[in-house]
Amino acid sequence: MGTLYGTHWILTLLLAVPLTGAVACLVGPERRARWTALATTLVALALSLPLFWTFSTGTAEFQNAASFPWIERWGISYAVGLDGISLLMLLLTTVLMPLVVAGSFSQIGRRERAFYASLLILMMGMLGVFVSLDLFLFYVFWEVMLIPMYMIIGIWGGKRRIYSAVKFFLFTAAGSLLMLVAIVALVHLHQQQFGEASFAYADLLRLSIPPRLQLWLFGAFGLAFAIKVPLFPLHTWLPDAHVEAPTAGSVILAGILLKMGVYGFLRFAIPLFPSAAMNRGVIAVILLLGLIGIVYAAWVAAVQPDAKKLIAYTSVAHLGFVMLGVFALTPQSLEGAILQMVNHGISTGALFLLIGMIYERRHTRLIADFGGLARVMPFFAMALTVVALSSIGLPGTNGFVGEFLILVGTFQRYPVVAVLATTGVIFAAAYMLPMVQRIILNPLTDDANRELSDLDGRERAVLAPLLGLILLIGVYPQPFLDRISPSVNSLIAYVEARAVPMETDQEPGIPAVAFEPARREGDQRAATPHHSDRLLEEERGEIGR
Amino acid sequence: MILDFSSNADYLVALLPETLLTLAALGILLADVFRRGDRPEPSGAWAAYAAIAGTLVAAGANLWLLLEVDAGPGLVAVDGYRLAANFVLLSGTLLALLFAVDYQRRESMQVGEFYALLLLATVGMMVLVAAQDLLLIFLGLELMSIAVYILTGFNRTDPRSAEAGLKYFLVGAFASAFLLYGIALLYGVTGNTNIADVVDRVETGSAEGELMLLAGVLLLLIGFAYKVAAVPFHMWAPDAYEGAPTSVTGYMAVGVKTAAFVALLRVFSVQLAPAADFWTGIVWWLAMLTMIVPNLVALVQNNVKRMLAYSSVAHAGYLLVGVAAGTAFGRAAALFYLAVYTLMTLGAFAILGLVAGKGDRHMNLADFRGLGWRRPALGLGLLIFLLSLAGFPPTGGFVAKLYILRAAIDAGQVTLAVTLVLASLLSYYYYLRVVWKMYFEEGADHAVASTSGSFRLGAALCAAGVLLLGLLPGPVLRGFERAGSDIVGGAAATATIEVPRPDAPANPTAGGPAP
Question: What pTM was estimated for this model as a whole?
Answer without folding.
Answer: 0.89
